[in-house]
Amino acid sequence: MTQLNRRTLAAGLACAPLAALLPHGAWAQKPIVLGFSQVGAESEWRTANTESIKSAAKEAGIELKFSDAQQKQENQIKAIRSFIAQRVDVIAFSPVVESGWEPVLREAKAAKIPVVLTDRAVNTKDPSLYVTFMGSDFVEEGRKAGRWLVEKMKDGKGDVNIVELQGTVGSAPAIDRKKGFEEIIKADPKFKIIRSQTGDFTRAKGKEVMEAFLKAEGKKINVLYAHNDDMAIGAIQAIEEAGMKPGKDITIISIDAVKGAFEAMMAGKLNVTVECSPLLGPQLMAAVKDIKAGKPVPKRIVTEEGIFPMETAAQEFPKRKY
Ligand code: AHR
Question: Which of 58, 60, 156, 206 is surrounded by the most beta carbons within 10 Å?
């Protein structure tokens, strides 16, 4: 090869688009990597939420690193630290409880990795620790449950004794759903919460705690307010085993609107469910792409939701996606 030819080839190589020099497909853009720390698999809702996130990531071409915390905050903190160490592009998580996140969120911020909160909020005075929070308004869900009860019992005389199955202690939905419900029922002193305990958002715990409520209060109980459908479904079993009729002897209100709740309503065992949508995957992936592209995203993205009394269950059931 002449000196000139060698020079021409070198110049050509320098100018040629790199893609032309690489094997087919190797020049394709690197996918965005999202680290997602999920609460666990405690409920039908959570399973639908996980499925929504996994399928939306696939659809969006986002590489998902998924970690299940089995309802333990320490596992979520470990997962977030590992995402930071792996230098993912974005971290998203659904915090099991509200408090105790500032140190790890500061680590993510120092590593310049944007954080998205999905479903549940964190308690922090520094909103710069996360980019956006997308999910339901849990206080409003509690209010919807309360308003339905007040309307249903408006003509009744005498006390309305309520037992409450709370969600996971310290979690945003447990705190807020209690708050919203109490805000509404306090307007009339006939509504009395006579027992309130956590059922940790699971069917097994919901059943166990309802058994204890029934043992302690028996036929005094008029209403069960469960912070999610799974606990209500567990409690329905306990009520039946105690020889009572759920949905009749005890009015049952719950939250989520999962298919299991519609089945219970169609069987006449659950009176109403307030919707809380787990289908956050597509919204999350859109936000992740916007963040990576440097586009602004709103600080709070609230999910639109309804309420389904048992009379609407048969008609709505075929339309349910989760
Ligand atoms: O954070 C949402 C709540 O968590 C859902 O109501 C419940 O079912 C889930 O476990």
Answer: 206
Q: Which atom of ligand 1 is nearest to the CA of 256?
A: 6
226 token code pair: 């469960």
DSSP secondary structure letter of residue 111: T
Number of helices (H), then strands (E), belonging to the chain: the values are: 12, 12
Ligand 1 site, residue 202, Cβ cutoff 6 A = no
Cβ–ligand 1 distance for 201 under 6 Å, the answer yes
User: Which residue's alpha carbon is at the smallest distance from atom 3 of ligand 1?
Assistant: 173
Q: Please check whether the domain covering 138-276 is classified as CATH 3.40.50.300.
A: no
pTM of the model: 0.91
In angstroms, the first-to-last Cα distance of the chain is: 68
Architecture of domain 33-136+278-305: 3-Layer(aba) Sandwich (3.40)
For the chain, the structural domain boundaries read 33-136+278-305, 138-276
Q: Is the CB of 141 under 6 A from ligand 1?
A: no
Q: How many CB atoms lie within 10 A of CB 13?
A: 11
Q: Could you tell me what percent of the chain has a pLDDT over 70?
A: 91
Distance (Å, whole) CA 228 – CA 34:
28
Q: Is the CB of 275 under 6 A from ligand 1?
A: no
Helix (H, G, I), strand (E, B) or coil at 123: coil
DSSP letter, residue 30: P
Q: Is the beta carbon of 234 within 6 A of some atom in ligand 1? A: no
List, in sequence order, every residue forming a beta bridge with 91; answer none if it has no partner.
35, 115
Q: What phi-psi label fits residue 238: left (phi over 0), alpha (psi between -120 and 50 degrees) or beta?
A: alpha
Residue 201 vs residues 43, 138, 171, 252: alpha-carbon distances, Å: 7, 14, 10, 16
Q: What is the pLDDT of residues 212-224, one digit of tens each?
A: 999 999 999 999 9
